[in-house]
Write a structure and sequence with these properties.
The chain is an alpha+beta fold and about 110 residues long. About 55% of the residues lie in helices and about 20% in strands. It has a two-stranded antiparallel ribbon with strand order 1-2. The longest helix is centred in the middle third of the chain and has 46 residues.
Amino acid sequence: ENGIIFSVDIIDRNNYFGKLSIAYVDSLPRNSGEPFLEEEKILIIAVAKRIADVIARREITNACSYANHALRMIMQCNQLLIRAKHETQLIQEICRIVEVGGYRMA
């Protein structure tokens, strides 16, 4: 049989990230038994779990970066609320902070 594949889902806390597949591309001799040793299967499963951990950690890091960015903008707007002398100046400066921060509208 050609192309014997062992596949493991890459999952972290019910988030599906994909599939890790390992394949033998050459045909196996007849009566060779299982194509993958139990130790190989355990290793492949461990690698899939580690990949899921790395992906989940990266997603958490990105979410934290986004939240920190938004909080910095809110902090700047709050400081402006304290310092602004006129409403028009307040609105213009808040719009500038939001635009520089990468948002389309205040």
